[in-house]
Amino acid sequence: MPATTSTPSATPGDRTAAQAYLRLLAAVRAVLDDPSRAPLAVPLLAAPIAEADEALDAAGLAGNEREFLDLVALQAVGGHAPRPADRH
Question: How many CB atoms neighbour CB 86 within 10 A?
């Protein structure tokens, strides 16, 4: 996973939530990459899912998928652009 760079308007909680989500995506990819591991998906993904849920709630991003996924995209590429709500 590439190193993440802070976006100017993202809070530490926002970045933590985006990073937790990216870790969840990496775990999902790893499990689904090998079809023989599919039966293990639930136990392998339980911790990353819980981490992402907790981070989303703590950042106040639960239920605001568009803003959150925009932030995830920026974190995934180490972007420096402001969050969509800040673009006018």
Answer: 11
